[in-house]
Amino acid sequence: MANEFSTLLRQLRREAGMTQEDLAEHAGVGVRTVRGLETGERADPRVTTVRRLADALGLTPEAREELLAAAVRRTGPGGRPAGTEAAERSSPAGAAAVAAAPATAPLAAPPAAPPDEGPPLPEPEVPERSVPEPPAPGLHATLADVAEHLAQAVAARWQREEEQRQVHDPYPLPVRWRTGPEDLTDHWANIRRLPAGAEHGPLDLGGRLNDVLDVYRRIPSGRLVVLGRPGSGKTILAVRFVLEHLKARGRAEAVPVIFSIGSWDPTAITLRDWLIAQLRRDHPGLAAPGPGGTSLAAALVETGRVLPVLDGFDEIADGLRRPALEALNATVLPLLLTSRPAEYAAAVGETDVLTSAAAVQLTDLTLDDLADYLPRTTRKARRGNAAGTAWDPVLTELRERPDSRAGANLAPVLTTPLMVTLARAVYSDTSGHDPAALLDTERFGSPGELEEHLLDNFTATVYRPRPDHRPGGRPRPGFDPDRSRHWLGYLAHHLTRLDTPNLEWWRLGAGLGRATRTLVTAVVVAVAIGVVDAAVGTLFDPVGYQLADGLVAGLVAGIMFGITYWFLVAARGTVVAPTDVRLKLFGRTGRSRRRTGQRFLVGILCGLVFGFGYGYVRGVLNGLLMHAGPALALRAALLDALVYGLVFALATGPTFGLLDALESPLDIRSAVNPVSLLRTNCRTVVTQFFVWAPTFALLLALGPWALIQPLSLVLGPLVWSPTATLKLAVISGLCGPLGYVLALTAWGQWVVFGRIWLPLTGRLPRSPVAFLEDAYERGVLRQSGAVYQFRHTRLQHHLARAHEGRPAGGAA
């Protein structure tokens, strides 16, 4: 029977205009293999075979990832027909069984490739320290395949990042370094991993950007600290190290992955657990089950298949750097750590150097570097000197009059790649801007003023009107430079308040006060439910009556969901994180069952609050319309409050519990960029809506018929018509899920704050997604997995300071 992988492979082959025979020939596999995979007869596609098929089809990185993900899902739990033990061991579930087996149990060798699939790829030898030997051949093969997948995703991400930063246009700036200070370096015997009594001496670790991998491999311990002042090129070096390492990587070597370590709290979570959490966030597919019941991310970290590149040690809060360094010293993981010198030295002074780690320190760019680079970034000068450029006066001043006030101000500014890159963006990439303005001492009286000028003009420069188009022929959206700087300033200020470099779409409202978040959520829910109730209710009752009913329903629902949001989210200082829907109600952990039980009780209380409030006000309204006396109206209101309260409690409790039971981490189909993750979560919300709506409506339809007769025996005759039941089920079946989505899902909170409140108050544009994607394409932001980050923390801090200095009624 054909499954998702079979359908996807067949679709991709047809889109490529290939027959099964063509695909088999280009991929170097047998026709029977292709035919079997497309029909579902082959239930155990090897990852090597899937990669060959992807290469033959010429897939984009996104399509390749989707095909590989489908292959992994096909052999995962519940998606695999019963097969041989060998097939079991080649899947993540089989690997889990191997890891859970007793140590004395015999382990079967991994299956040989079918004759028409070709031999497996050879595994090159690697240094002994790179990867610990896994406990079983089947487990080794599975994790090696997962690591290959991760390596491809990491390489694609950082290649795109280098393109966005124009690192190779016209060539990378010459980042250089020298061996770091001895007081920030461990004993060379420890770094060299020498036995006691062996003679030792320092290693020569000086080099430049293209040598970074060779320098790292000279260090037997595999632990290196890269020190450099702000803007000196630490992140550029980290990216180049990752790409060079991946290019030379053997199948058994660890995969280098960049982690922004500034978000790590070593007092709350261990390094390994934090690495695992970051991998699952940036690569949601690694949340899939792995060996021993853990995730694939945990299996990769625990078996040494991830080489952490920890960028930004200096961004860790002051009080956490010492415990962070102590935690790093408690591990023997090979790693590369970047930091500013002062912050790292302060942490070392409080505890000790990073154990077994060598250190290098980045050096400044030279005048020769500037003379080689800057002229090649701009147009040639016209009017006589074809070899001259607009940078010639600046370079002449720096070379011939270095002691002049202009030269003394500008020279220290243009010693870091960050400032040179900003100068290039402002003056080389923008027509009509003369770099000679940098020599104006009346305008810029100090190096600091020059740096602020470059940072301040960067956003205005990149948002200048341009006639170019984006890939696919789509015109670039136009954003006013002043408004764009205001919006970016708010985002930078938002990140500063949260003390994180990660701009997450589901946390855009987290920068607001708890009371504000709760009030805004309650108001939006009230308006939405009131409108839906009033509109749909006109099918059953007169317009005037239904407008009043919609007002009552919206007001009570807003209060109820506001209270729920406060206790479940705001009061805890948390946000609603993106989730997926998993149709699995059994085999859950004790913790998840307790959480579902708590949601069940919360649902009952929410139903009681809403039902009692709505029923009471509705009863009063009906009494007034019927001109009943006060006593009769009060009795009718209390009866309605009791009935509606019980009906909604019995319907809301099970529905809340069911939705919580179906929530799970995002599966392997989830994207690894912010926009795709947003779309994935939107699909999740749609699924949750269509689970809630019929379930809630059915329970509300059955509730009155189950309660009316028993209550009539106690309270006297009660009237409940079929029309009232239908109306209650239809309207509440729509309004209940709507309130849940807006208040208690990540996508709903994105709509409330990202699409409604923040644009309405002028903090963000009407289309935040288009703005963020455009900022990424312009090089203001970068992507790190499912989150955005400012391309440099210096730019983020500058924009935040500028935003805080604006008057309260700043640009909208």
What is the fold's blueprint, element by element?
Layout: H1 4-15, H2 20-27, H3 31-39, H4 47-57, H5 61-74, H6 85-89, H7 92-100, H8 137-164, E1 176-179, H9 188-191, E2 207-208, H10 212-217, E3 223-227, H11 234-248, E4 255-260, H12 271-282, H13 296-302, E5 306-311, H14 318-329, E6 335-339, H15 341-350, E7 358-362, H16 367-373, H17 392-400, H18 405-410, H19 417-428, H20 447-462, H21 481-498, H22 514-537, H23 543-568, E8 580-581, H24 590-625, H25 630-662, E9 663-664, H26 674-715, H27 722-744, H28 746-760, H29 768-778, E10 781-784, E11 787-790, H30 793-804
Parallel strand pairs: 3-6, 3-7, 4-5, 5-6
Antiparallel strand pairs: 1-2, 1-7, 8-9, 10-11
Description:
- Keywords: Membrane, Transmembrane, Transmembrane helix.
- Residues 108-124 have a biased composition (Pro residues).
- It comes from Streptomyces mashuensis.
- With 812 residues, this protein is mainly α.
- It folds into 5 domains: 4-102 and 135-144, lambda repressor-like DNA-binding domains (434 Repressor (Amino-terminal Domain), Orthogonal Bundle); 150-362, Rossmann fold (3-Layer(aba) Sandwich); 367-462; 471-504 and 756-804, Orthogonal Bundle (Arc Repressor Mutant, subunit A); 514-744, no CATH class.
- The protein is 56% helix and 6% strand.
- The chain has 30 helices and 11 strands.
- It has a 7-stranded mixed beta sheet. It has a two-stranded antiparallel ribbon with strand order 8-9.
- α14 links the parallel β5 (306-311) and β6 (335-339).
- α1 runs antiparallel to α5, α19 (417-428) crosses α20 and α23 (543-568) packs parallel to α27 (722-744).
- The chain is globular, with a radius of gyration of 31 Å.
- The two termini are 57 Å apart.
- Residues 74-136, 467-475, 667-671 and 807-812 have low confidence and may be disordered.
